[in-house]
Each structure stands twice: as structure tokens, then as C-alpha cells.
Amino acid sequence: GLDANALLYAEGGYLYWKSRGAQWIDDGQSGQDFGVLTLLEDELPWDWDRMKSMAAFVDGLDEPANPLVRQMRSVATGLKDIDAYLEMAMDDGEFHRLYIPGEVFHDSGLALQLGPAELSMLRAFIALTRGAAYFVEAYDHEWTLEGAFGAWRHNVGLDHSSYVPGFGAADYTVDYLDGHLLREVTNPDRLAASRLALREGIGHLRQALHLGVEQSYSTTLAWEKLDGEEAFEMDQFLEAMEDALDGPTSLPHADGVTVDLSPLFEDGGRRLDKEIDWFERHSPAEGLLDASETLEEVSAHWTISEEALYAFFLDGIVDPLPQSDDEALTLLAGPHGGVTAFLEVLLGEYLQKVEGVYMQTR
Q1: Residues 66-78: what's their mean pLDDT?
Q2: Which pTM was predicted?
Q3: Of 69, 126, 157, 186, which cross-links 140 as Cys (Cβ 3.0–4.6 Å)?
């Protein structure tokens, strides 16, 4: 029942007020500056008190998250329908470019010009998102929103079963989720669907690369800034990753390294042993963290453990095993900074415009 346009980025919406420096809660010191919560109170289906904090919002939400995660299948189905329309446009011999006025996004500077290469990129994003959704849905999710974000984390007594000296609320969130994520596969059929969607996504990325390099006109994405040799090497890498979904494949430019992604999707999928922690905590040198630290602040003190990384993502997948985490990430990201650098070249200028419109105080 929410009007996402009105609540998120239309004039008077969440991003509208946040870009103008408004806080979430009213400014208690002056008593005059209204927060976003007060300004949007009449548009929200929840009581004001429930929206004051995450802990208040999830109070009582103690049902397992499995039904919530299964809703991702509906989202994926909706994305598939959108992809079908994009495919129709690309198959139309009369289609060359689509112009979307910036006023659609409430700022003239956000105008879009989308050609076949851009539509292929959109199709890749849709397919990869669907693949990730199916993969997550395959696993058991017995965790609850109250367990992960509830008020209990702010006052954990010495006699509590989860008590750890020096832990703040966000530390307990990470520790709680650590024991529940990707531990047990309950819907193995979703893994097959995930692999199929990921294969489609990689194929669309390769198609976008070919179309973008060959097109003779400018669009929103900066295809003209791609180096031809680097584009060719990226295409080779994407082709190898596509093949690796089905079995061992030699990585180009990696001196005999092979990658086999099939264990992620076959024989019931991968499970991280309960004896291995997903995350490990690094306390600052000056001592224990303050219990009032936010999740964003505490995340800097938690990293994925090397043991978990190797056990779930590398062992039996990369051969020979890399000697360090950085080496592993470099191998799986591709040449010249990988897919991330490739997207930064294409999307950089437009993303800066989006950030300037929605995320900066004006």
C-alpha cells in the first residue's frame, strides 16, 4: 500500500528531504526542525513510535525469515517479465535509441539515452539479480528480524547465552546472523534456476560489450572510453566464467589457473560447516568497542574470515588455490581491475549526477 514514488524520490519524499540535510528524527535541541519521519508520518502505515528505530520496528517479528525470503521468487518473476519487454525492443529492427527525460527522475540532469548496448546491460543486471535471489532462496533462513535487530541486543546481561564482553548491539547482530547464513540448503531446485539466470546475465554482459564497442553514436553509458584491448580481454574473461558454471575452465591471463563454479549449484550446493565462522572481529588497538556504535561503524571491525572464504568459495572451485585473499579476489574479478572497474568507466559520470541530485545537501 506504499506509494514508492511519493515516499522515496518525488518532491517531498525521503530523498528530497535527506538531500536537504533533514535528519530522520526531529531535532530535539531546537525543537523546531522536523525530521523526515514527522514530515512523512501521514504517508506511512506504521505508528510513529514504531518507526523511531530498527529495534522498535522489528519488535515482535519473531517468525523465521523463510517466507520472507521466498517472496524473492515473486520479485524475480516480475524482473523476468520486464526482461521480456526489453528483449522485444532489441529484436525490433526499428529500435535505435530510447530517450527518457530527466524530469521522470525529478531532475533534468538525469536524462537517459539508452541504445541496444544499454538494454543489454539492463538485461544483464536483471538476470544477475534473479540469479542472486534464487541462490539465496535455496538456503534455510531460520533467523528472525527480532533476533537480528531486536531491542535485546542493547542490554545483554552477563547471564545471557549470547553475552560476549565488549560487544555492542551491532556486534550481536553480526554474531547472530553468522550462525544462520548459508548453512543449510532446503530448496536445491533454486540452485539450478540460479545457475541458469547467472548464465543469461553473463551472456547479456558480453552482448552489451560487443554492441557498445561497435555502436557509432553516444549514449548515457561511456562506451567510447573503453580501451579496445581491455574490452577484448574482459570478453574473454566473461566467456570463461560462463563456461565455468558447468565445469573446470582455464582462466585467461591467469597462468594455468582453472575455475569450476559447478559445485555451487550441483550435489545439493555448498554448506559452510557450523564450526567455521563467516565473520571475524578485529577490536581496535585502544580496547573494546563502545556499546553504542552503529552497525555501519562496527562493520569496519568485522571481516569475512579467510577460513570461510576458502571453504565456501575457493576450495574445489579454484585450482590451484591462491595464496592470499587479495589474489583470490583478483582472479575472480577479471583483468585490469575486473568487472567493477569496467562498470565504473561506463557508469561513473551518471552515478555522480545521481549522487549530486539525491545524496548531497542543497
Answers
A1: 89
A2: 0.85
A3: 186
Q: How far are the Cα atoms of 172, 173, 174, 236, 277 from residue 179, in angstroms, in the given order?
A: 11, 10, 9, 38, 7
Give the whole-angstrom CA distance, residue 36 versus residue 9.
Answer: 13
Residue with cell string 572451485: 317
Tens digit of pLDDT for each residue in 2-57? 788 888 878 888 888 888 888 888 876 555 578 888 888 888 888 888 888 889 99
For residue 302, which of 287, 329, 282 has the smallest C-alpha distance? 282
CA-based R_g, the chain, Å: 23
Cα 188 from Cα 171, distance rounded (Å): 31
CA torsion through residues 188, 193, 196, 198, sign: negative
Which of left, alpha, beta for 12 (phi over 0: left; psi -120 to 50: alpha)? Answer: left
SS3 per-residue string spanning 320-356: CCCCCHHHHHHHHHCCCCHHHHHHHHHHHHHHHHHHH
Number of alpha carbons in the 13 Å side-chain half-sphere of residue 179 = 10
Judged on CB neighbours under 10 Å (0-12, 13-18, 19+), 106 is: middle
- Helix axes of 325-333 and 338-358: crossing angle, nearest 10 degrees: 80
Place of cell 546475465: 201
Q: Could you tell me which of 181, 190, 204, 182 has the C-alpha nearest to residue 138?
A: 190
Spatial contact of 136 and 69, defined as CB atoms under 8 Å apart? yes
DSSP state of 251: P
Identity of the residue numbered 312? F
CA-CA distance, 360 to 165, in Å (whole number)?
Answer: 39
Sign of the Cα torsion 229, 234, 235, 240 reads positive
Q: Where are the alpha helices (DSSP H) in the chain?
A: 4-8, 14-18, 36-39, 54-57, 66-91, 116-137, 145-149, 169-178, 189-214, 228-244, 295-299, 306-308, 325-333, 338-358
d(CA 143, CA 120): 36
Supply 344's cell numbers: 565504473
